Amino acid sequence: MQADQSALQCNACGGLCYFSPERSALECLSCGECYDLGQPDDYLARDEFAHRPDVAEPEDNITPAQRTHQCQNCGGEVLFTGPALSAHCPYCNGPVVLVSGDAGYRTMALIPFRVDAAFAKRLAQKWAASRVACPAGLADVVAQGDVAGLYAPFWTFDSDEVVQYWANFVKPGGKAIRISSTKGQMKIAFDDMLMPASPHVTPLIRDGILHDFDPRDLKPYRAGYLAGFAAERHHQTVAEGIAANSADKDLLIRNHIKYKIDRTGVHGIRYLTDTSGIHYRRILLPVWILHYSYGGHAYKIAVSGIDGRTFGERPFARRRLALYSAAISACVIALGMAIGAAAAF
Length: 345
What we know:
The chain is α+β, with helices and mostly antiparallel strands and 345 residues long. The chain has two domains: 1-37, no CATH class; 51-314, no CATH class. Helix content is 25%, strand content 35%. The chain contains eight helices and 17 strands. It has helices at 2-6, 117-129, 138-143, 203-210, 223-226, 238-244, 246-261, 318-344, and strands spanning 17-20, 25-28, 34-35, 49-50, 62-63, 67-71, 77-80, 96-100, 104-105, 109-110, 146-171, 178-196, 219-220, 230-231, 267-294, 297-304, 310-312. Strands 4, 6, 7, 8, 10, 11, 12, 13, 14, 15, 16 and 17 form a twelve-stranded mixed beta sheet that branches. A three-stranded antiparallel beta sheet has the order 1-2-3. A hairpin with a 6-residue loop joins strand 11 and strand 12. The protein starts with a helix and ends with a helix. 30% of the residues are buried.
């Protein structure tokens, strides 16, 4: 931590620096001097690491224990680097307290923030205002919310799968439903499957805004990129990350099998897969999380710190929702009557 803090001091005046998404550089809080963090070998951040189940991780992948801030509400633990000191958890907006941390695993790469806090807040307001059946004035309520920048921990996984499968499908033919079975083999290559490395990273964050990140945007881990933001550390082993990824991979394999069979009503899928060529990265991805309250309930909106993609939670106006439902029902009935009248002729 001392090395990280000294790396954030301004060479011109000795002041503390923070990472500016607008300038894509470290900026001194005192004199405004900027420092580019880029290096000629930044492309190495795209490198992936082979997983060998029979070999322990190298010792240099382990980081020493650091003092972290733990949320008293959701239990999330985050580091605050440089001038980023907050009394609230980026994940749930609950109060945080300083605790003695434990050892974690080194971050291999990250994508720096490109979207600043003010722009993220405007995007959250725009998203809220555009929702169907949203309460009047919701965007104004969102504008009063608290926004926090967070580097969230993720895995990327590659693997080669040789899949042997068995399945049933519905075979058309007359009024009787006939079930037929099939089997086969296929190869699947997974590339950069994104998997949260923390139970606090919800589908709202990954599937809503970060699922299609570009690995070419990755930069080597440097403390300067975290200056002014919170970050959660990696605590999972590679084996734990692979196990957490199994449900997602299972769903994708089943979808590949359905596509391969290309029949109606595919069901009863069973398969065996031989997995090889597992490669991984431990990375951090930037996200803004805006917390707001409406009607006594807490909501949050997540904004990608990469490209501003926005997704979130929001309340509904019951009266507006009823009006929309009535309008849709009326349209469906009118369409049905029109089709019926046309058929009569």
